[in-house]
């Protein structure tokens, strides 16, 4: 930084990168971006208070922050699940702020919610077919692609999803979102509630999915592990961007460690099956 930034001069690099002006500069040409988003559930109460985020092609971007910070809300507003009150969401230069989820799926955006993300009474194969209802003719080809990432889903294709463990269900949910060949995958706490072994497996799979060319935005409570695999991370606090930097730099930022990683890491250790 030079001496021309005024008040920004006192910000740490990760705080400075989270400023709206720096966001606008770095978000140029992004695959997906959110600018100055406000959104909420109850009239008159905003949960997001001017959030900014961008995702470049082939990136994995993580969103971390304390409980109730608005991480899931941000993901839902990107996917048209809650109305955006002001600000814009853009996909490849197209304004998609008001687009609904089913339209976004056809535009190449996949979303995996944190809970209730499989149909328990359907088999694995039927769950994957549900993800393909818009392009059922390509089922065999996409099934092979998904089976390449999650071989277990092919081996157990006839089992009911309700009989699977939490980690296996997460694979079904991610596999289903991948059936539509998305270019962007939005994952809401994919490791939540899983044992440490399964948590790690989820992060390994995310890297593999990303290596096939899918760009990922991931909300995570397992902040350390998330930042280890992310190209860049955002720390969200009270509906606003607090810090953003590479995953590596956030992991080593003394303020981020003190304010966010200690307590979040403590919560993660309570993971169960
Ligand atoms: N459907 C809803 N109706 C009303 N308020 C909601 C709803 N969903 C979430 N909220 C509120 O919005 C705020 C942000 O919730 P959100 O789930 O986005 O937080 P988060 O950062 O993802 O936290 P967590 O890690 O606890 O899931 C919280 O105060 C929550 O109570």
UniProtKB/TrEMBL annotation:
Query: Origin, by domain of life?
Result: Bacteria
Q: Does the keyword Zinc apply?
A: no
Nucleus among the record's keywords?
Answer: no
Checking Pfam families in the record gives: ABC_tran
The UniProt entry's GO biological process terms, in alphabetical order, are:
L-amino acid transport
Classification via PROSITE patterns: ABC_TRANSPORTER_1 (PS00211), ABC_TRANSPORTER_2 (PS50893)
Molecular function terms, GO-annotated? ATP binding; ATP hydrolysis activity; branched-chain amino acid transmembrane transporter activity
Q: Report the InterPro entries cross-referenced here.
A: AAA+_ATPase, ABC_transporter-like_ATP-bd, ABC_transporter-like_CS, BCAA_Transport_ATP-bd_LivF, P-loop_NTPase
Every copy of the ABC transporter domain together lies at: 32-263
Coiled-coil region(s): none
Keyword vocabulary terms for this entry: Amino-acid transport, ATP-binding, Nucleotide-binding, Transport
Family matches, as SMART domains = AAA
The family assignment reads: Belongs to the ABC transporter superfamily.
Protein name (database record): ABC transporter ATP-binding protein
Its ancestry begins with: Bacteria, Bacillati, Actinomycetota, Actinomycetes, Mycobacteriales
């Amino acid at each position: 930084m030079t001496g021309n930034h005024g008040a920004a001069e006192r910000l740490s690099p990760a705080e400075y990168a989270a400023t709206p002006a720096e966001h606008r500069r770095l978000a140029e040409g992004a695959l997906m971006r959110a600018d100055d988003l406000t959104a909420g559930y109850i009239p008159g109460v905003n949960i997001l208070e001017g959030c900014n985020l961008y995702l470049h092609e082939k990136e994995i971007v993580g969103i971390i922050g304390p409980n109730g910070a608005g991480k899931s809300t941000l993901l839902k507003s990107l996917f048209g699940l809650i109305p955006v009150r002001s600000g814009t969401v853009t996909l490849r230069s197209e304004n998609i702020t008001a687009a609904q989820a089913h339209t976004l799926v056809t535009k190449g955006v996949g979303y995996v919610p944190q809970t209730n993300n499989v149909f328990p009474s359907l088999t694995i194969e039927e769950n994957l077919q549900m993800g393909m209802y818009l392009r059922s003719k390509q089922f065999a080809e996409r099934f092979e692609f998904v089976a390449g990432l999650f071989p277990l889903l092919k081996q157990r294709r006839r089992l009911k999803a309700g009989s699977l463990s939490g980690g296996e269900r997460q694979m079904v949910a991610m596999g289903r979102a991948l059936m539509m060949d998305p270019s962007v995958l939005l994952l809401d706490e994919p490791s939540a509630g899983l044992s440490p072994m399964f948590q790690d497996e989820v992060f390994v799979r995310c890297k593999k999915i990303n290596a096939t060319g899918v760009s990922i935005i991931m909300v995570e409570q397992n902040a350390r592990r998330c930042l280890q695999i992310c190209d860049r991370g955002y720390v969200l606090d009270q509906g606003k961007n607090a810090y953003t930097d590479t995953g590596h730099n956030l992991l080593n930022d003394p303020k981020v460690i003190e304010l966010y990683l200690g307590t979040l890491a403590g919560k993660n250790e309570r993971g169960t099956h």
